[in-house]
DNA sequence: CGAACAATTGAAAAGATTCAAGAGTTGTGG
DNA sequence: CCACAACTCTTGAATCTTTTCAATTGTTCG
């Protein structure tokens, strides 16, 4: 466990990081950073749940990613034109560690193990992003999105199999690239096929195997 | 100009690379590496034109990327489960430099400037991939695809404004995620609006401004 | 030349969007 | 603590875009 820094920096550099990092808190719906802002730094989530979104030309929102404890956010603002290409918004009350850009760059350039892992991290993000291009009916994409919701946020408890935090219909729609009406209809489809039980806002996973099958496009 | 190695490795390491690299040639439609194969190494294109594709569950093809002289290919096979997640296929007769995996990893770990640039490269690839998720009608996506075709392969000559190599209807369809019939229909749309002139297989860009506007979703 | 492949067009069908109207939830101020 | 506003969720019907299937023409290469 722990963040990528904890795992791949030497003790000395970790102290350097701890000296420079700032702890910041945000309420639900709080904006951690905003698309278009100059890249100030790099964030790791201490605890909380966050969505990363991007504003579309047609002022639709696109949900890029969700993140939870120990995940990093803000990395897309690095290495390019040094503006955040996306916004990060807290879904629940969230506490983050903030590391200023120049400190981060210094740490990366000095820790070859860390920079090697960062290549790996970006390569994984790239793979995930490419996977989203696979063409499937909304039903299958939704199954995939629910599994992502589970993978990142987990269950409330093992027994209930209820997601600890369920994305809104609109968030699912923004992730998949469809409308919330369509999400609602497909959600009730998944209900009928017994894959899930959607109870008001929250979702209970009834048949994980089926959901995984659907997510693979079958 | 030159490859990422030429630009960011010391002279000594470049000699090391030159000692270990192998020059390989492929005819048009030749397979440079195949999805699912264990990652053998890393390629830079000496000259030629290449498409990177992935096989879908529904045995459709997805076109991930096109690449030309000095571009790198095969990098998606690194840093994960060490299998190529995609195939690379020559579009025209192509010559590549091949660098075995272990040599590449050795070079990356020893050249911090190179590894920093590789993070940058992957971050750019990620940005490009994310951009493809933006929802647009096929017409606009096609405009974007034609511009990509231009950006990577350029014109035959500045005067004619004819693409030096035009992707097939099927390739455009595989890139955008639609059918070739739809591409044909939208291509004739772009013809009528005066953005392009499609002359048999090849495309002439008539109105670059209009094409760029469409590509931005307007 | 002829076979294989690439491009084109039309018509019917499928899937998703849009618009519209209403029900259920949640949070806040009086 | 209730009431009202704001927000989220749900359902139905018409419409639109794209796909699918089918038939045909054009092009290229051995």
List keywords for this structure.
homodimer; about 220 residues; alpha+beta; four-stranded antiparallel sheet; 8 helices; elongated; DNA-binding
Q: Give the oligomeric state of the chains in this entry, treating copies of one chain as homo and distinct chains as hetero.
A: homodimer
**Terminus-to-terminus distance of chain A:** 34 Å
What is the overall silhouette of chain A? Answer: elongated
Q: What's the number of extended β-strand segments of chain A?
A: 10
* SS field, number of helical segments of chain A: 8
Task: Please summarize the sheet with the most strands of chain A.
Answer: 4 strands, antiparallel
Stretches of chain A where pLDDT is under 50 for at least 5 consecutive residues are none
Counting helices, strands and paired strands, the structural category of chain A is alpha+beta
Q: How are helices and strands ordered from N to C of chain A?
A: HHEEEEEEEEHHHHHEEH
Radius of gyration of chain A: 18 Å
Average of pLDDT of chain A: 92
| Main sheet strand line-up of chain A | 1-8-3-6
The percent of residues in helical segments of chain A reads 40-55%
Approximate strand percentage of chain A = 15-25%
Most extensive interface, residues per chain? A-B, 37 and 37 residues
Topology:
The structure is a homodimer of 218-residue chains.
Chain A: H1 4-8, H2 11-20, E1 22-26, E2 31-33, E3 41-47, E4 50-55, E5 61-67, E6 72-73, E7 87-90, E8 94-100, H3 101-110, H4 112-131, H5 138-153, H6 169-176, H7 180-192, E9 196-199, E10 202-205, H8 208-215
Antiparallel strand pairs in A: 1-8, 2-7, 3-6, 3-8, 4-5, 4-7, 9-10
Chain A binds a DNA duplex (30 and 30 nucleotides) through helix 7.
């Amino acid at each position: 466990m722990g963040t990528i820094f904890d795992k791949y920096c030497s003790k000395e550099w970790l102290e350097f990081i701890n000296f420079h990092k700032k702890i910041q808190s945000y309420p639900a719906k709080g904006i951690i950073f905003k698309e278009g802002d100059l890249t100030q730094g790099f964030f790791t989530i201490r605890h909380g749940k966050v969505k990363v979104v991007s504003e579309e030309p047609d002022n639709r929102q696109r949900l890029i990613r969700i993140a939870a404890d120990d995940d990093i956010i803000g990395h897309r603002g690095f290495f390019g034109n040094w503006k955040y290409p996306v916004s990060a918004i807290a879904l629940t009350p969230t506490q983050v560690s903030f590391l200023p850009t120049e400190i981060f760059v210094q740490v990366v350039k000095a820790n070859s193990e860390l920079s090697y892992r960062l290549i790996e991290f970006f390569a994984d993000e790239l793979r995930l992003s490419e996977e989203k291009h696979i063409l499937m009916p909304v039903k299958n994409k939704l199954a995939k999105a629910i599994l992502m919701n589970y993978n990142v946020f987990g269950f409330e408890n093992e027994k209930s199999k209820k997601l600890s935090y369920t994305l809104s219909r609109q968030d699912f729609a923004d992730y998949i690239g469809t409308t919330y009406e369509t999400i609602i209809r497909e959600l009730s489809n998944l209900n009928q096929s017994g894959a899930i039980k959607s109870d008001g806002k929250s979702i209970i996973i009834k048949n994980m195997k089926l959901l995984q099958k659907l997510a693979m496009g079958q």
